Amino acid sequence: MDIYLPIAELSVNGLVIVLLGLGVGLMSGLFGVGGGFLTTPLLMFYGIPPAVAVASSATQVTGSSVSGAMAHWRRGGVDIRMGAVLVVGGVIGAGIGSIIFRALQKIGQIDVTITLIYVTFLTLVGLSMLIETVRTLRRQASGAKPAKMKRHNRLIAALPGRMRFRAAGLYISPLAPLIIGVVVGILTFVMGIGGGLIMVPILIYILGMSVSTVVGTSLFQIVFTTAAITLLHAVQSKTVDIVLAALLLVGGVLGAQLGARIAMNLPPEKLRMALAILVLIVAGRLLVGLTWTPTNLYTVQLAG
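The structure assignment produced for this chain is given below.
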């Protein structure tokens, strides 16, 4: 079932794209993170231009994050004040990211830059997760007590203008989450990720946010930030392929629900290790594609 993608300007097998979205949604439900960091590389492997893959992935992340955010909202797992600050930072970061994105497009380096950022980002994240998971498993095997988590570091505590984030259990300056939102907004625009893979660890380990509200607040931020990013991509870079995003969303929603049910019966440490290995495999595949010299440097295709 071939479907033409008007923005990507190529035909794809619609079933393959839906299954790709299903697979990413399944992993998203299993591991509890947004699937954007996997969707974009997988679309690039399939032959979708990186710029279109980034913009369309952000569109899919927006849609798939809404249901999750609403579920956490209903059970009181969202800190609205913290989420609002993160959204403001995310929108500012999206504006900065759009400037960077357009500049790279003008000099013709957007595809290479996106790939390089992904290789670096996924390698660092994958290694960090793998090391932390191995340490946790070793502590569990030896019977040692888990290390006590710090509320937040001294730099965060020294920032001026503190305010109380009740649901998050914090009394800190809003400058800290604002800066975090800006950084995540830039990465979300350039990479097409949801930001949860970065946001959740930062909110827990740097800000010391309550675990009970961190996922819902992160999803709340993702919905509004990626919506703004989708609009910017559509208006400025014109790289949002709505047909591609719709196909991904169909599979992603179904996969996320299935993955969440499976995850309930699996140990979290083993899930984190599986995710870390998966992230490193994707990074390695991108690195090979970036450095391997193809047999045919040029191809000519005749229309019709």
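Interim note for the steering committee: The first strand starts at residue 2 and ends at 5. The radius of gyration is 20 Å.
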